[in-house]
Structure prediction request, 614 residues.
Amino acid sequence: MSLITVGTMAFDAIETPFGKTDRIVGGSATYVAYAAINFVKPVQQISIVGFDFPKDEMEELKRRGVQLDGVEIVPGKKSFFWSGRYHEDMNTRDTLITDLNVLADFDPKVPDSYQGAEFLMLGNLMPKLQLSVIKQLVKRPKLIIMDTMNFWMEIAMPDLEEVLKHVDMLMVNDAEARQLTGQFSLVKAAREIMKMGPQFLIIKKGEHGALLFHRDDVFFAPALPLEEVFDPTGAGDTFAGGFIGHLAKSGDISFENMKRAIIVGSAMASFCVEKFGPTRLKEVNKNDIDVRIQQFKDLVSFDIELV
Amino acid sequence: MSLITVGTMAFDAIETPFGKTDRIVGGSATYVAYAAINFVKPVQQISIVGFDFPKDEMEELKRRGVQLDGVEIVPGKKSFFWSGRYHEDMNTRDTLITDLNVLADFDPKVPDSYQGAEFLMLGNLMPKLQLSVIKQLVKRPKLIIMDTMNFWMEIAMPDLEEVLKHVDMLMVNDAEARQLTGQFSLVKAAREIMKMGPQFLIIKKGEHGALLFHRDDVFFAPALPLEEVFDPTGAGDTFAGGFIGHLAKSGDISFENMKRAIIVGSAMASFCVEKFGPTRLKEVNKNDIDVRIQQFKDLVSFDIELV
Prediction:
């Protein structure tokens, strides 16, 4: 089954307690693609880049099975650029620079060749653009997942509420879930969000794992306790890519299969943070992923008899 | 098998975003006892109280199977008093008042009737007192667990290091593990702590669950996502009580059984936070506990085949 991923392709400058990189490829769609392509082909990318986005990165994505017909290349402008610095706890960061560049003109177009895709991952973007993609699809995908951020809650809440009515799952972090609902309790926040449209909700808690909600069911997956989180940039998008990649591979969107997909997403995210940008994601193979998934099983498996 | 628990019995005044109580029974040994007694009898308490500690609380503990021969009652002095205020996130709190009262004179004595106990839970106390209890035991228990806090790392680190050499497990929160080792990564902190003496380590992360370390093995149990955390006071001690209570019940101190014990401890802690002080712990019965443990199984169980 095919998967459309919509989001940014960008350059990032990242500073962590462990090191610094001035310019590395990033962007939500990049991370989603590098994670999902391990499970499903093709991944159909919709994004926008400037003249400066590396040709060899585009070739690398294509070589792996990512289709780029939906990636607009703007000759006279630069690619989106983000720069940030992480604090010691790696859960908080300061944004130093956001140069929208080409992103300011982004008007995603779904190529004809992408029509019929059964899975759609809407990365964090202006809600109007997310809705535009949904509306361009002739046949509604089997599963639509969206990400968003606090910024849109502040400046485009009515648009955001409209998109929420059209998606099956919202995937946000704990702070975003709280801001969206005004509820501190994540259980209460989850209930309110599921009234806004999505039947499924994933709340990402970074190093503290992720929660999946559906009706009265809840599932929790931890993050792998790592010796070092080298660079958390893209971990959330990588998680999303692994998650939807696993679902698209199997075509099964049951709650039970979403549990498995969360483990797969968590495993992919645990690789992502080991090196700067998507570097580590490009290195891992199927065996590495299987070994990591087994570590997750060992981490949470217990056997208790109620007598 | 019998279990000795050493710690405080106290009065607490607690303020949370949900309410306020001026004076409720608390103290680490109280919480440990109310949790552990569901699984093992007798629980043998070592503590100190003043003239003001309620007789009916003592009777309630005895009625449930907690032995109080080791609890010194000081006629002319007041019981230990702690007062604190929780912030909205419930993971941080300000201590408003600490009146040591009788605790300033605490010199724990192990009654002859407690000799031979196979499990020992050393609540957070001056390290010298923890060591004194260990030395008074004629036969070394099968398992010794200790709690501690940052305060002792600051003013009594050499004593703390000495106790650590005599225990099997340290149970601390994430901030304490970091302070004890100077390592931010909990995986690295765990490795260093296990070099200091304890073969086993539990790092409690509050609403984010708990990690169990032993050699190269690691196990993670989440906290139950609750609609409301009403009062987190005593949750860590309740966790400890459920944990060691389960181990003492079975007599099995394997890593596999410790995994189960963590789930039991987490289940007990999830009750503790539902009402002020130990109120909720006194209400729950075996069926409530079994239902809660089943919720934990559902929360983390997944089935993934690597193909």
In short: The two ends of chain B are 45 Å apart (CA to CA).
